[in-house]
Each structure stands twice: as structure tokens, then as C-alpha cells.
Design brief:
Radius of gyration: 19 Å
Distance between the termini: 68 Å
Protein name: Thioredoxin domain-containing protein
InterPro entries: PDI, Thioredoxin-like_sf, Thioredoxin_domain
Shape: globular
Keywords: Signal
Number of strands: 5
Helix content: 40-55%
GO cellular component, one term: cytoplasm
Family: Belongs to the protein disulfide isomerase family.
Order of helices and strands: HEHEHHEHEEH
Length: 148
């Protein structure tokens, strides 16, 4: 019996030792061709998405910018942060008209709401995402009211 208890203890404790329980890294969702459309079409949800390729020096120079933005956006339930690797998901990048890297776009209810072309720092990206989401939500509400 004690061998079983010891074994269970070892398994349980190793789970916590080797599991990524560290919550300091904000969630940036990797969007692939299989899930991109479903995710960006989520109702009443904005997706701020970075399109990049692994070999791009400008993308590499961003470092942890996207994760840092994710941390800064925690609590903004209606805004998700995503990333698309255009090297492995060319069809997605072609569909949304990506020609240079990195490119940042905001989607709302499946539609492209805006393309970001400002400074590449957390505060600027956060402000853009918040303001863009508010504009897109207002437009969506007005369009919905017209349909009624």
C-alpha cells in the first residue's frame, strides 16, 4: 500500500514540477489555417492579430511585444491577441492580404476592422486595439439596428 501511495505522490508532485503553471506570460493564441476563420468570426469579439514569419528580422526585433501586449490587455474580455505564422499558413495570409512582415490587423465579428501602422510599443498597440474595438462594435451595433 505504501508503495502505491509513494508512486502516486511522485506522479502528482512531478506533474506540478514540470507543468507550465507560471501565469506571468499572457496568452497569445496561435492562429492556424484550421482555426483562423472560426476564431476571428466569434461574435462580439475583437482579434488583434500579428502576421509574421520566423525568418523576418523585424518580427524578431519585436521580441516579447505581443506577449507584453497580452499582459496589458488582460481583463479586456472582448479583445483577443493572436499570431499567424505566414510561413506555415500562407492561405490565411493571402486571404487577408498580407504582403509585408510584421503586419498587425484588428478583426471584429469576422471582418477586418483596421490595419495598424503606428509605433510598435505596448501602449500604442493597446490604445489602437481598444479604440478600434470600440469603433467596430459601434459600427456593428448600428448595422444591426438598420437590419431591424
Amino acid at each position: 500500500m505504501s508503495k502505491v501511495v509513494n508512486l502516486l505522490f511522485l506522479i502528482f508532485s512531478s506533474f506540478f514540477l514540470f507543468s507550465p503553471i507560471n501565469n506571468t506570460k499572457a496568452e497569445v493564441i496561435t492562429l492556424t489555417a484550421n482555426i483562423f476563420n472560426d476564431k476571428v468570426k466569434e461574435k462580439d469579439t475583437a482579434w488583434f492579430v500579428q502576421f509574421c514569419v520566423p525568418w523576418c528580422k523585424h518580427c524578431k526585433n519585436l521580441g516579447t511585444l505581443l506577449e507584453d501586449l497580452g499582459k496589458a490587455m488582460e481583463g479586456e474580455d472582448e479583445i483577443e491577441i493572436g499570431q499567424v505564422d505566414c510561413g506555415t499558413n500562407k492561405e490565411v495570409c493571402n486571404k487577408v492580404d498580407i504582403h509585408s512582415y510584421p503586419t498587425f490587423k484588428l478583426f471584429y465579428n469576422g471582418d477586418e476592422a483596421a490595419k495598424y501602422q503606428g509605433p510598435r510599443d505596448v501602449d500604442s498597440l493597446r490604445t489602437f486595439a481598444l479604440e478600434g474595438t470600440e469603433k467596430a462594435a459601434t459600427k456593428a451595433q448600428l448595422d444591426s439596428d438598420k437590419e431591424l
